[in-house]
Recover the amino acids of this structure.
């Protein structure tokens, strides 16, 4: 019995002790859990604080990048404004120089006219005195009846010889004047005929190119992480890439048109490929540069074929191709050179010179513009040195060197090239007119014609040298159409200022339509 009680008491004590130990372990577990939870909360707070600091740093870096880009854009805009201001000042100075030259020429013409009037009066006075003297000599001869026959004949012949000399001089002056007028008229006809037989295309280049993108997400890929892609692209191509809010486009800006074309083609390839990173960018740019060099060579060969100028040195052909990417006062220099070549050949054929040599001189007269960034001096001197280096004819070298104001009249082909160069530069739509002014003049031609009653449509063609007018067959007759054509031409003469001539063609058409059922 005592043993049983002892066992029971021992069991109760064991249970109580076990329960106490269990409660003690439970409290320890709770304390450890709370400590672990507090540690997790503390770590979480630290991570949140670190993330917040990183976000603030990223925001500051983005703000600094945006500020840098804005400052860069501002500098570019200021540089463009400065360049435009410099060009405007240069043009203003040129206009003032031209005005001063015109004033000097007017003074010279007035002085020449005054001197000519004085000489004419003096000549008339001498003529009257000579007439009186001859009358006196005739009377004296009649009185001197005692002279021998030989003496009288000699004196009479002397008088007749003097009279014939005077009449011969007057006839020579008259024919010289007529010959000068005929030559001037013939030269105008030759130049106008050459211009009308060749109509060239004129394009106005800008300093930016636009590249289309499939979506605005591509802009971020072009920029790259922290701008590394766009920096690598600008470094490899030497251009400025402008990425703004304009949807669907990226703008490539550079003054050098060849670099801009390489950048445009490379960017299009990268967008199509999709793999945009610095190594791929450098690879694509190198490949594109090689392709563009082949394209430039092809352009030079096509220009030689078009101008019928074979057997050019390979380097000169390459320089001709580079002129395609060069503009002068918004006129494409390669198209200008081809036009000058054709005009020179036509003028040379008209006056009996070798048209092939003239075309060669005209095609190569501005070759120095393709290499003026590689050497010092103006493009005439650079072009002459290049042509001499590659074994061109003396006529071609002289035309390239002296086709501007420093022209020396020792080579007829140089004079022809200078005239053709002036014609090409002053053609409507070329360098002396901006594209906006050219388009406005074309619209003005059409709007003037459309104001006449009975006119349905008017189209300006041939760079503004011809206007075709369609009149209504119901509202006009053949006689009234002829009058409309005459009135339009007279209105152009009164209201517009233009070089050369404008051909007005009025078309009146009658149509009858029936349906067979």
């Amino acid at each position: 019995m005592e043993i049983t009680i002892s066992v029971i008491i021992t069991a109760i004590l064991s249970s109580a002790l076990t329960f106490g130990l269990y409660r003690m372990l439970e409290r320890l577990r709770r304390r450890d859990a709370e400590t672990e939870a507090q540690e997790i909360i503390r770590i979480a707070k630290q991570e949140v604080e670190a993330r917040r600091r990183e976000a603030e740093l990223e925001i500051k870096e983005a703000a600094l990048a945006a500020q840098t880009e804005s400052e860069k854009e501002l500098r570019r805009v200021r540089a463009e404004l400065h360049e435009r201001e410099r060009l405007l000042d240069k043009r203003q100075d040129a206009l003032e120089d031209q005005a001063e030259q015109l004033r000097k020429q007017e003074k010279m013409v007035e002085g020449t006219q005054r001197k000519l009037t004085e000489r004419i009066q003096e000549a008339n006075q001498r003529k009257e005195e000579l007439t009186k003297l001859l009358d006196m000599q005739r009377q004296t001869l009649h009185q001197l009846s005692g002279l021998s026959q030989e003496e009288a004949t000699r004196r009479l012949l002397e008088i007749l010889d003097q009279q014939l000399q005077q009449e011969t001089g007057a006839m020579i002056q008259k024919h010289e004047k007529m010959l000068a007028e005929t030559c001037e008229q013939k030269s105008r006809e030759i130049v106008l005929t050459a211009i009308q037989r060749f109509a060239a295309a004129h394009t106005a280049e800008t300093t930016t190119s636009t590249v289309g993108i499939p979506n605005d997400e591509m802009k971020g890929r072009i920029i790259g992480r922290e701008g590394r892609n766009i920096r690598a692209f600008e470094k490899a191509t030497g251009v400025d890439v402008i990425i703004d809010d304009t949807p669907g486009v990226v703008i490539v800006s550079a003054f050098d048109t060849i670099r801009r074309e390489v950048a445009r083609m490379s960017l299009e390839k990268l967008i199509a490929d999709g793999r945009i990173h610095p190594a791929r960018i450098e690879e694509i740019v190198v490949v594109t540069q090689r392709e563009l060099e082949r394209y430039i060579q092809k352009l030079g060969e096509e220009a030689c074929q078009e101008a019928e100028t074979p057997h050019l040195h390979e380097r000169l052909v390459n320089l001709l191709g580079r002129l395609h990417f060069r503009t002068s006062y918004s006129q494409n220099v390669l198209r200008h050179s081809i036009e000058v070549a054709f005009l020179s050949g036509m003028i040379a054929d008209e006056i009996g010179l070798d048209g092939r040599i003239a075309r060669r001189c005209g095609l190569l007269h501005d070759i120095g513009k393709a290499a003026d960034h590689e050497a010092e001096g103006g493009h005439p001197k650079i072009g002459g040195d290049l042509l001499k280096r590659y074994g061109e004819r003396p006529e071609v070298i002289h035309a390239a060197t002296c086709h501007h104001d420093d022209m020396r009249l020792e080579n007829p082909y140089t004079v022809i090239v200078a005239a053709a160069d002036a014609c090409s530069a002053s053609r409507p739509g070329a360098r002396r007119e901006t594209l906006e002014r050219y388009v406005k003049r074309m619209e003005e031609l059409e709007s003037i014609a459309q104001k006449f009653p009975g006119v349905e449509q008017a189209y300006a063609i041939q760079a503004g040298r011809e206007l075709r007018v369609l009149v209504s067959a119901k509202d006009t007759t053949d006689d009234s159409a002829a009058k409309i054509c005459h009135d339009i031409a007279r209105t152009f003469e009164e209201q517009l200022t233009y070089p050369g001539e404008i051909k007005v063609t009025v078309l009146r058409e009658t149509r009858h339509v029936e349906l067979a059922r």
Q: What stands out?
A: The chain has a mean pLDDT of 79. The first strand starts at residue 208 and ends at 212. The first helix runs from residue 2 to 143. Residues 208-306 form a domain with the Ribosomal Protein S8; Chain: A, domain 1 fold (CATH 3.30.1370.10).
